[in-house]
Write a structure and sequence with these properties.
Elements lengths: L3 E6 L10 H9 L2 E4 L15 E4 L11 H13 L3 E6 L9 H10 L4 E4 L4 H8 L13 E5 L3 H10 L6 E5 L5 H10 L7 E6 L7 E6 L13 E5 L6 H16 L1
Parallel strand pairs: 1-4, 1-5, 2-3, 2-4, 6-7
Antiparallel strand pairs: 7-10, 8-9, 8-10
Helix pairs in contact: 5-6
Length: about 250
Amino acid sequence: MRGFVSLVGAGPGDPDLLTLRAVDRLRAADLVLYDALVDRAALRHAPQARWAYVGKRAGRHSIEQETIERVMIRRALRGERVVRLKSGDPVVFGRGGEEALALAAAGIPCEIVPGVSSAVAAPALSGIPVTHRGLASAFVVVSGHAEEAYGPVLRSLAPGAATLVILMGIATRAATSAMLLARGWPADTPAAVLFSASRPDAFAWRGTLAGVASAPRSEAPGIIVIGATVALASQLQTAHEGGQRAAAR
């Protein structure tokens, strides 16, 4: 009897941002394979399952992607319900598509359970809308880990044409900001670097595109946001924090 695999998005970090479907799949799981940025508190929804850490972080030893796929296939062939729990959304730089293809090739039924992507959640929680009437009618999300990934997109984007969200780009922030400046983006374009979105230790740097290269670094996961809507943060963050306090009462 063949099992089933759910590729589940865990959201940006706070377990309260799990979807109802994600919680349902965790409750029914026999095995949960979870990523580095998944808050372990999310695993409380899977009390009957075995848990296995398969996370990947830059510069650290990690399990090979092919090994993760083999484990999912092997367990599903035993009839188990497997949850592959990924930070954010499974198919936003999460290799969810690769894993779904590997499962399909092995004849394993699977589903993708969307999650709240940090690409929109991190800015929103910091008072930055990625789109806003009169300021930005589009947003672009790129991976900043290597120039071959972000270069073609940044070089094709007209200055100020969209809010730019850079994931996994803290280490390359000097190169990406230099590329944008060389492409004609104004040096005073509002910019922010957001760390540990939705977590208790969340913090943010706000400044301009010219200052991104000298923004602080941290071991915490970070996201870079560049564009006119960043300037709204000072107003919206105050309202957001007031709303959180009111909701907690």
